[in-house]
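Entry type: protein chain
Record version: 2
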Amino acid sequence: MKPGALIIPLFVAIPLAGAFINSVIGKKNKAISDIIGVVITAVLVVLSLLSVYYVNQSGLIPYSVGSWKPPVGIGLVLDGLSSFMLVTVNIVAFLIALYSVNYMERFTAKFRFFTLFLLMVAGMNGVVITGDIFNLFVFLEIASVASYALVAFGTEKHELEAAFKYAVMSTVGSLFILLGIVLLYSYTSTLNMADMAVVISKSGFSNIIIFVTVLFIMGFGLKAALVPFHAWLPDAHPSAPAPISAMLSGVLIKSLGVYTLCRIIYNVIGMNVVISEVLLFLGAVSMVIGVFLAIGQWDFKRLLAYHSISQIGYVILGIGLWTPLGILGGLFHLLNHSLFKSLLFLNSGAVEHATGTRDLKQMGGISEKMPVTSGTGLVASMSIAGIPPFNGFWSKLIIIVAAVQANRYGYAFWAVLASVMTLASFMKVMKYGFYGKLRAGLESVKEAPFYMQLSMVILALLCVSGGILLLPELRAMFLDSAQTALSQGTGMAASILNMVKI
């Protein structure tokens, strides 16, 4: 067994254990729920950073559940892409758990929140590390079901309505995915993704594989909220409590949608010119339509929700270019979007917590009352707009350069246009939401509580310093490792099977 293999199942076991313990003893004391939520997610951050170290030391690391080796047994796999996603998911989860210590005081039954939150984290981690496509579906559903409940956590009418709409749309996506898995299993006689890749590469790209690919693009496109599968997101994200909005937009749609789509398309089915064209088109359409829908919004969280659609478009555009630089840019933007969009939703939560409104027209001038929130909000706004030297600038620049190098000048133009429109949208947010003359009735507004401020400041520092990941040593260890895992395509399957063969 390779060094580091034993930590792989911990990414699911620890949050599941935390959710169980919290459900039993957390209701007796709110402080216990806080401690469990923050400590568990902090441990997961440490383990995810360790996973990056082990992958760089040992390369691809397989783990056989119950010592039953794939393709007969269930396999877990740690490679550059999965370690990259684990870091992204768990850093954001930790900072949101920290923020929730203060924010969730306004709700009853905080222990239920942290129980569902840890279940969602366990599901996302499971999706990232599994090497079995049916287990991927199971973990995806664990995370999805927990997120349905969390969207409706406040139990207000609009929250329940949004949660119902989200559940129905997401279930439709799950049915597409499940049907695709059933057809793949009937075609390959295996559920192990590496084994599937070997069978598909030998038999060629048949009609059944084309149909399955369409099902997966629709199913995972719904999970990722790509246009035209985005209808659920503008209702679900604004309605949820701010920490859950940050979690949904920051990492859930990426781990359940973008990551799974990329992993299956590249490493199981195999990328080709037609799929590349489809992804490029969906990415560009999402990028442009999302930002144009956002720019007219006055509800702070709804505006951010539409920007999630737009920014996911950048990620899919980079991935769809099918070049090493494009994949690198897409993955880097996935990480950066997780940071600055989580920060923006936490900012909106802090503002709503203090003022009682999300309407930008009813805000104004609160920067003097909430300097930390407005300062971190400015950092996040500049990051999402792609202003140097913030992290969003570097990943957008890489995607645009990759598009130009691939002679995709039209897509490069749309990426630049969407970035300009994003800047215009967030200039409106800063002008009407934070700066100007203090609006009457907001004189008693106070800054967010300590843990909410701490979480926002850490995220802002990560946005400011994100460009250092492009330094040669850090890039080779983190970004290049993830990019290589995708670029290898179905060739990775043979490596996995050679390591774990019976």
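Comment: The mean pLDDT is 88.
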